[in-house]
């Protein structure tokens, strides 16, 4: 029988979500008191529905977190359990340095792609080794950890769970990642490693302040095999207007495997947020996380937050929408989806 790999969609059943905890050795050092409560809120929301894998370089802090979160689950009678793994880390973007899981003939394979901090923009050596630490702790059970000699971040790809990937050419074709591979070579490699039949490439779309070279999870997301939500900018005076309008047109041109167009839902455009130096930050409602029976939605303390909750509830009527204020996260140029990585059902069984 021919082997068939599948990259599950995010809405597929999960066993756990992974978080790489911020510590004083990361760029979060100056705002740890602001950002740790965000991580704690994400952690507690996840534990309402599934297990949580947390790693941290500072062992004492990790032990405190394990005690606090375990007490939280017991106090509230929650199903999720905490798995704490001491491991060095340069930063906290688990979406990009975390493992990507595929299914092959019913077996889970944990893929460990190379990570170079979005094209050598920042230190990355500890993050690149993190998945081995977690695997060596037995976190993935009997699932195999398979190294892949290719630089790929989880935030750069969206899967419909049926063989289609959505991505951006700005990211996957960046010469700072895999310079020896052109578009056709990348398509062939991802077809073999992830089991993809086709890739939908977006050539437009960006967010100011984004370090990732236009990760797809900040711009457009699969919500079902036939449904894509996306960032839309209605303000013609905004610097994003032209690029996002061009991206919207590309999405309208995309076709499902049967030739029909995708259902499209535009997400609200939040008011601009700036850092202390006046640099615009990449706040986006597209950076939500789908977990079992819920969607964790980043909000930013702006007037459009309520509308975003309403829109997401319309997209996911059978899931609870849980807004989490992620304004502190965007000061390091990421948001909720960027700091999390889901692990499919059957992998983590504490």
From TrEMBL:
SUPFAM superfamilies: Pentein (SSF55909). One of its GO terms (biological process) is putrescine biosynthetic process. Transmembrane segments: none annotated. Keywords: Hydrolase. GO terms for molecular function: agmatine deiminase activity; protein-arginine deiminase activity. The keyword Hydrolase applies. This is Agmatine deiminase family protein.
């Amino acid at each position: 029988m021919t082997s068939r790999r599948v990259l599950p969609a995010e809405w597929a059943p999960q066993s756990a979500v992974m978080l790489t905890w911020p510590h004083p050795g990361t760029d979060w050092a100056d705002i740890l008191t602001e950002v740790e409560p965000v991580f704690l809120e994400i952690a507690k929301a996840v534990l309402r529905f599934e297990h949580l894998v947390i790693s941290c370089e500072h062992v004492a802090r990790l032990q405190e977190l394990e005690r606090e979160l375990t007490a939280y689950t017991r106090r509230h009678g929650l199903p999720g359990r905490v798995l704490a793994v001491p491991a060095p880390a340069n930063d906290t973007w688990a979406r990009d340095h975390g493992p990507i899981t595929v299914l092959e003939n019913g077996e889970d394979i944990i893929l460990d792609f190379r990570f170079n901090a979005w094209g050598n923009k920042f230190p990355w050596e500890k993050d690149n080794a993190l998945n081995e630490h977690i695997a060596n702790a037995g976190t993935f059970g009997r699932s195999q950890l398979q190294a892949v000699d290719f630089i790929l971040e989880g935030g750069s790809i969206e899967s419909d769970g049926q063989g289609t990937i959505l991505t951006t050419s700005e990211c996957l074709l960046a010469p700072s990642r895999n310079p020896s591979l052109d578009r056709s070579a990348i398509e062939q490699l991802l077809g073999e490693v992830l089991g993809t039949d086709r890739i939908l490439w977006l050539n437009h779309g960006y967010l100011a302040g984004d370090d990732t070279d236009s990760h797809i999870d900040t711009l457009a997301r699969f919500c079902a095999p036939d449904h894509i939500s996306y960032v839309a900018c209605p303000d013609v005076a905004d610097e994003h207007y032209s690029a996002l309008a061009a991206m919207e047109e590309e999405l309208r041109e995309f076709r499902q495997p049967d030739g029909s167009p995708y259902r499209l839902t535009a997400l609200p455009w939040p008011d601009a947020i700036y850092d202390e130096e006046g640099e615009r930050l990449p706040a986006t409602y597209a950076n939500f996380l789908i977990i079992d029976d819920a969607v964790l939605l980043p909000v930013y303390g702006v007037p459009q937050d309520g509308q975003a909750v309403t829109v997401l509830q319309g997209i996911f009527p059978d899931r609870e929408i849980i807004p989490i204020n992620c304004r502190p996260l965007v000061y390091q140029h990421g948001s909720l989806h960027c700091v999390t990585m889901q692990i499919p059902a059957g992998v983590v069984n504490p």
